[in-house]
Amino acid sequence: MKSMKALFVIAALTVSSLAMATGGGDKNFNRMEASRKVSMEAFQVAQKQKAEAAVAQSKAKAANSTNG
User: Fold this and answer.
1) What are the backbone dihedrals phi and psi of residue 20, each rounded to the nearest 5 degrees, phi first?
2) Model pLDDT, residue 63
3) Which of 22, 4, 2 is closest to 12 using CA atoms?
4) What is the pTM of this model?
5) Mean pLDDT for each 10-residue chunk of the chain (68 residues)?
6) Which class for 13: exposed (0-12), middle (13-18), buried (19 or more C-beta within 10 A)?
7) For the chain, the helix, strand and coil percentages under 3-state DSSP, each to the nearest 5
8) How many CA atoms does the CB half-sphere of 18 hold within 13 Å?
């Protein structure tokens, strides 16, 4: 009888862990992480372009003030 109870407890724990593992949490986390990475790269590219535009604009102003 004790071995039957032990087997039942082991089976219950195994089934519950399998049920939790199939919830798809890992897939969602990986998808969110990939989306975060893509958005951060896009943000960095936009910031770099903004900085380059500011530098180009300041150089154009400097060139215009020396020519003027």
Assistant:
1) -70, -35
2) 74
3) 4
4) 0.49
5) 84 71 74 95 94 82 70
6) exposed
7) 95, 0, 5
8) 6
